[in-house]
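User: Can you help me understand a structure? I only have the sequence.
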Amino acid sequence: MAAKRAKIEHDPDTRAKLLAAASKVFSRKGFSGATVKAIADEAGCNVSLISYHFDGKEGLFKTLFESFGKERLKDAEKILSPPR
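Assistant: Let's start by predicting it. Here is the structure, written out as tokens:
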């Protein structure tokens, strides 16, 4: 069991899994309705990994929000670039 836990903690995809799961859970339940347990269950990860990677639910939400904002900014910059 300890070997499995160590593998999950060092899995480079764990952070991405948590972000994808959080996106789903937050979109369904909102920030207030989402729980770290629901996010961890959706990701198939231990709930403590949310604190490990993001310092809690707030940090996870902030990371998602920043990522979304950066993607929208890139899209806007492409659209608003001066013509050649």
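Now, to help you interpret it: The chain has a mean pLDDT of 87. The first helix runs from residue 2 to 9. Let me know which part you'd like to focus on.
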